[in-house]
Design goal:
With 237 residues, this protein is mainly α. It has 9 helices and 2 strands; from the N terminus they run ααααααββααα. Strands 1-2 form a two-stranded antiparallel sheet. The chain is globular.
Amino acid sequence: MRFVPVKSEEAQGAAMVFRVRELLIRQRTQAINALRGHLTEFGQIVPQGAANAAKLIAIVEDPDGGLPADAIGTLKVLVAALAHLEAEIVKLDAEIARRAKENEVAQRLMTVPGIGPLIATAVAVLAPPPETFRKARDFAAWLGLVPRQHSTGGKQRLGATTKMGERSLRRLLIIGANSVIIKRHLHASARQGTWLGAMLTRNPPMLVRVALANKMARIVWALMARGGICQSPAAAA
């Protein structure tokens, strides 16, 4: 079920900032993919990912890059579009950071490892009130972070996560979990002997990311429902 809580004008404004940012991110991804595809036609191969956008732009702007003169003008249209989108996204990120500083709930959520201003603000303005859910697992299920369960030979196994739930928040929490895993050398929660440390040695990376995002979601619900801040590692057992 999708809950649509009644929000204040301030919360609606914050939600709009987040939704517009999502739209610009999608447009940026489309522009990057288009630029990469066109350059591939001319034998210029660049790996996928927004992090490689600068490489694509450098190829177009290189006067000795070997691209056909007739194509450069059109490719520069995409480059200009990318620059504009990036500048607008930076502005929205600054606005989100400002709103996070002024939002008491967002401030507390940012004490959870892996949750920064973007995720904290998104949860604060997009998630239903915590009392909507009886317990933390129900909130994680609403997000679509509770894996399907099935049994084989008397043993219960966890499958892929459901496709239901609030996709935007689910995606952001998985990204936040991934940041913790990537920077695990900085987090006590990922050391040997911890829940996350053990998960990383036994399971595929994607499963670990989703499992950690699930744990983060439960902590988020507890902070929203009971107050306080996160004083223990997000990945602690």
